[in-house]
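Technical note accompanying the year-one report. For the benefit of new consortium partners, we illustrate the data format agreed upon in the data management plan: each record pairs a sequence with a structure-token string. No post-processing was applied to the example shown here.
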Amino acid sequence: MSSDKELSDFLKSVEKRAFKRAVYAVRSDDAALDIVQEAMIKLAEKYADRPAAEWPLLFQRILTNATMDWFRREKVRGAVMQNLSEFEGADEDGDFDLLEMLHTLDGSLGTESALDAVARGQVLAAVEAEVAGLPNRQREAFLLRYWEEFDVAETAAVMGCSEGSVKTHCSRAVHALAKALRARGITP
């Protein structure tokens, strides 16, 4: 049986990545925060007694389901409130962005020139934009495999599909990202 501290530590370790994954899916910081909070509460309420080793897959599946529930609710709201949901939030500053926090190639921060920092920021913004533009299932498979570092079986369990589908989605995502980034002049 897991302790409250273990659960708290686990939730702290996944909160930022879960938030970014939700933002990619719903394209709204406020909605993403709600989705992540809902997923964390559900994990704590229903699965806190499970072994800590089971939490990563459980949490990712709960997060996926919470995201799908959000889309369903939005579809209903959209049908009732037609054009009122088309407002976009203009405030994108001040939020945590994992891609902006990446280390330079040599693993140290603060040793790059201003020109290198600007160039790196532009490349990261381009990568983030292209990841956000992937179809939902491709983006989900890509993020779970390469960001969350889940293996194919774990990713399939979270996504509720076959391992072959995960491989297909990941392959298509990687090829689409490579093509889009090459078109922007970004090469490895």
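Partners are asked to follow this layout when depositing records. Helices lie at 4-26, 29-47, 55-80, 114-132, 136-147, 152-159, 163-183.
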